[in-house]
Amino acid sequence: MYLYNVEHVLINVGTGYYVEKIAEDAKGLLKKETDFLPKQMEKTQPALQEKHAIKQAVTEMMMSKKTPNSHQLTALSHADSSCLSCHLSQADPYNK
């Protein structure tokens, strides 16, 4: 592949749109974009960290509500009342 006209280039301006620019203008536009992106990343980083912390807190809360304590889990898994440890703990007045 060969470039026949190096004075004009196509620049992707987003969402599938291209603009024909003179090479010098294109360099300026690309320089402007490369300066803009790191600044935007610095601006959005704190908000992203805050949202991540909120997501972690919500996930932990959901997991704590989803997981019943061990006795409830044992009672649910032994619904036929055949679990000896459940019967013993219920019958023992000192085990509360």
TrEMBL record:
Protein name in the entry: Prefoldin subunit 5
Question: Could you tell me the Gene Ontology terms of the biological process aspect for this record?
Answer: protein folding; RNA polymerase I assembly; RNA polymerase II core complex assembly; RNA polymerase III assembly
Source organism superkingdom = Eukaryota
Which InterPro entries did the record assign? PFD_alpha_archaea (IPR011599), Prefoldin (IPR009053), Prefoldin_subunit_alpha (IPR004127)
Which SUPFAM superfamilies would you find in this protein's record? Answer: Prefoldin
Q: Which GO terms describe its cellular component?
A: cytoplasm; prefoldin complex
Q: Name one GO molecular function term.
A: unfolded protein binding
Similarity comment: family membership: Belongs to the prefoldin subunit alpha family.
What organism is listed for this UniProt entry?
Answer: Canis lupus dingo
